[in-house]
Amino acid sequence: MSGVSELALLGAILPLLPGNDQVIVGPGDDCAVLKWNDAYDLLVTVDQLIEGVHYTPETPPEEAGAKLMKRNLSDIAAMGGEPLWAVVTLAADSDAGRLVPFMTGVAREAARYGTAVCGGDISALPVQGVVTTLTLAGRVPHGGAILRSGARPGDVLYVTGEIGNSISSGHHLSFTPRLAEGRALGGKAHAMLDISDGLLLDARRLAQASRVDLEINVPAVPLRAGAKLPDALSDGEDYELFSAARRGFPARSSGASCPATAR
User: Fold this and answer.
1) Which of the chain's ends, N or C, has fewer CB atoms near its CB within 10 Å?
2) pLDDT score at 254
């Protein structure tokens, strides 16, 4: 956004947004948390994918569509939730033939994770490119959403998988949303988010939400092949889970396919 920072824009917009008594958690976390029933709370998240920003025009459209779905799935994972339903908007220039393989990628990943794609909208774009948006709804046991704001003094920081070199390695397209890991952390992690904008920036967001200071054991950060530590801390597009919890809990967690590394 030319001329204005994202934080400044959010600072101007967020006070304008109305809420109601069905909103448990509003803007500022990976998902909104809404009242649903006695057993579950509803999770809602939305994300965009812009050709030339989040992927190159040379990226196969099916891979780009898969990324759009998985970015949102990663938000559900960060709350310890289960995805259920999605709606998609598509806007493209005159070369709209890319949209069918794009939606093939969306549908493939939705089916893989048990998510129904149940609607959306299509529009023409007056400039070259493709802009897409996906809204995803899911559920989490009532009162069980893992928020960014729950970290406590004395907690240990953990991260799933590896960090860095996401673009060059292709990880930003091929990553696996950590849904199983997120659910395994339910009731164990005090705070969590997914690393999409860089480890340091996202760690700062968790610290600010929790009103604590974080100390990262930088030499212990698990690096993806080819990653250099200074770049890995800020690169982004990792889609790993960053959590704060009591010491030693991941070793006793079950149902997770990817171990968590303490930092």
Assistant:
1) N
2) 46
